Amino acid sequence: MITERDLILRSKLGETQAFEELVAEYQGKVYTLCFRYMANEEDAYDMAQETFIKAFNSLKSFQGKSRFGTWLYRVASNICLDEIRRRKRRISTISIHQPLETDDSEVEKEIADVRPTVEALYEQKELSLYIQTLLDQMKPEHRAVIILRDMMGLSYDEIGEVLDCSTGTVKSRLSRARTIFRNNFIKREHLP
Length: 192
Hints:
With 192 residues, the chain is mainly alpha-helical. It is built from 8 helices and 2 strands; from the N terminus they run H-H-H-H-E-E-H-H-H-H. The chain has helices at 4-12, 16-38, 41-57, 68-90, 123-137, 140-151, 156-163, 167-189, and strands at residues 100-101, 106-107.
């Protein structure tokens, strides 16, 4: 039986088939991690694909001091966090009441009603969407620890490796993130 370690060694030697087997093993978890960061299927797919490309190109730097999955999650987290930061720098504030000006003319903005209908969504789906919304509103470092701990099930040490910080920092960020999340969730319960 071929072990993960064998696949990693063969991949480092340039065997693409061995790396494809590693991708097959981790693609679901990496996609899920990326989806939790990006909250969009297309973006998650793109980020997961970018993760595996970057992992293949930098596989020689993997020394085996941590589990391969932990190293791969770190690559994915960094790619997603970089993309989130890049997008935040690009966002400019515009009024929804003023028309957009283009080179040819002005275009009135129409805001689509994206509220889920009762017929379309079950209660669980609504809760899932709300949780994702709360995650999207959090600072990236808080979102990361909640995703890695509560959704991906990584240990504090593994999260520290993924985020390149100490276990104490992970614990304090997680405590703070959970408090923020809980308070925002409770606010929803008190809305009419």
